[in-house]
Amino acid sequence: MKIAIVGNQVCITSNYSYDEIAKVKRNRPEALKLYQGTGEERTHVFSVSVDATGGMNSKFLCFGAGDKDINGKAIVMFPVPAHEDGKAKEAVAEFIGPRALYAKSIEQQIDAALTEISNEQNSIINLIEA
C-alpha cells in the first residue's frame, strides 16, 4: 500500500488490483477484515472491500470499480484535509490515523488469501478431465 499527496488530493494505492481484491471478497471474505482480541473478546477493527464507488470511514477502506492507477492497482482518492502551509503530510497522517496501518495488515492477509485461492483452484483444475 502506498499513500501519496497529488496536488490537493490524497491517493491511497493498494498493492492489488480491484479484481484481485474482488476475488478475495468472493472466496475468502474474512481475509479482508481485521480483528482485535480473541474468542468473545474478538472485535472487528477495520475492513477493506471493493464496490461500485470507493470511500473510507473509520471502519473501512473501499476501492471503487474503475478506480486504478496506470499499473492497474486499486486506488481511492479524497481531498487533503485543511492544514497549515507546509503541513500537508502531518494533516493526512492525522486524518488517516491508524487506518493506514490496519489496511497494510489486511494487505498481508490478502497476499496469503490469494496464494490459498490459487493453490485451491490449481488442485481443482488437476481433478478436471477434459
Features:
27% strand, 4-stranded mixed sheet, 130 residues, alpha+beta, 3-stranded antiparallel sheet, single chain, 37% helix
Structure description:
This protein has 3 helices and 7 strands; from the N terminus they run ββαβββββαα. It is α+β, with helices and mostly antiparallel strands and 130 residues long. The strands form 2 sheets. It has a 4-stranded mixed beta sheet with strand order 3-4-6-5. A 3-stranded antiparallel beta sheet has the order 1-2-7, covered by helices on one side. It is globular, with a radius of gyration of 17 Å. The model has no long low-confidence stretch (mean pLDDT 93).
Spatial extent as radius of gyration: 17 Å
Number of helices: 3
Query: Secondary-structure element sequence?
Result: EEHEEEEEHH
- Biggest pleated-sheet summary: 4 strands, mixed
Tell me the fraction of residues in β-strands, as a range.
25-35%
Globally, the shape reads globular
Mean pLDDT: 93
Helix content: 25-40%
Number of DSSP strand runs? 7
Supply the helix-strand structural class. alpha+beta
How many angstroms does the end-to-end distance come to?
40 Å
Low-confidence stretches: none
How are strands sequenced across the largest beta sheet? 3-4-6-5
SSE topology:
Elements lengths: L1 E5 L2 E5 L4 H10 L5 E4 L6 E9 L3 E2 L3 E5 L10 E5 L8 H9 L2 H29 L3
Parallel strand pairs: 4-6
Antiparallel strand pairs: 1-2, 2-7, 3-4, 5-6
Structure in a nutshell:
This protein is α+β, with helices and mostly antiparallel strands and 130 residues long. The protein has helices spanning 18-27, 88-96, 99-127; strands spanning 2-6, 9-13, 33-36, 43-51, 55-56, 60-64, 75-79.
